[in-house]
Amino acid sequence: MKSLHKYLFQALPFLISLMFMILLALLSDEIRDQFFYNFHLINKGEYWRLISGNFIHFNNAHLLMNMTGLVLAFLLVGKQFTGVHWGLLILFCALISSLSIYTFNSELMIYGGFSSVLHGIFLAGSIKGLKFFENKVLLVLLSSKLIYEQFIGPLPGSEDFIKTAVPVYSHLYGALSSLLYMLLIYLFKKKQIKIAGN
């Protein structure tokens, strides 16, 4: 029973993310427009878009692809962190990847989608569970994908499937955000240990 509770708690941030994505997809276009990342409107103080833009999608195919990715992420690496850490990681990757786009890619006016966060989840989970062979394979595949995208472009067929352009630098920002999160957690724990030792 205890392990079941732990499993459900680990799944909670993933379930909340899925429900938020679905809820946003069910809203009218006029309301949905209030949640997309929008460079000009963020400049005017609509800062919630830095987070909400990661959970809203341009169409059903775009939504389905990222929902499927999130389910796979939980099945493959969901056990590597607690529910609290997954929740914090998702929000951290959403915020930092959006801020990175805002800072380094200001030419991108409108953005939506969970893929940057997904890359952060996969990377953090595979590194945390690196002692397992399947996570080593996952890390190699993810790294190869990121390298391919940065030097060649989106994976063949991805833009045709979701019917919108794929800003591949957002995937890199999501992955780097997760590395930053893990570094901060490591430094925090190291400081706590040092304080406890004193």
Helix and strand run: HHEHHHHEHHHH
Tell me, rounded to a whole number, the average pLDDT: 95
Principal-axis shape: globular
Residue share in helices? over 70%
By CATH, the superfamily comes out as Rhomboid-like
Question: Structural class from helices and strands?
Answer: mainly alpha
Q: How would you sum up the major sheet?
A: 2 strands, antiparallel
Distance between the termini: 38 Å
Count of DSSP H/I helices: 10
CATH structural architecture:
Up-down Bundle
Runs in which pLDDT lies below 50 for 5 or more consecutive residues are none
What does the radius of gyration come to?
Answer: 17 Å
Number of domains: 1
- DSSP strand count: 2
CATH class: Mainly Alpha
Strand order of the largest sheet: 1-2
The proportion of residues in beta strands is under 5%
In CATH terms, what is the fold-level topology? Rhomboid-like fold
Chart the SSEs and their pairings.
Blueprint: H1 2-26, H2 29-32, E1 37-38, H3 39-43, H4 49-52, H5 60-77, H6 83-104, E2 110-111, H7 115-128, H8 133-151, H9 158-162, H10 169-197
Antiparallel strand pairs: 1-2
3D architecture notes:
This protein is mostly helical and 198 residues long. The chain has one domain: Rhomboid-like fold (Up-down Bundle). 73% of the residues lie in helices and 2% in strands. It contains ten helices and two strands. The chain has a two-stranded antiparallel sheet. Helix 6 crosses helix 7 and helix 7 runs antiparallel to helix 8.
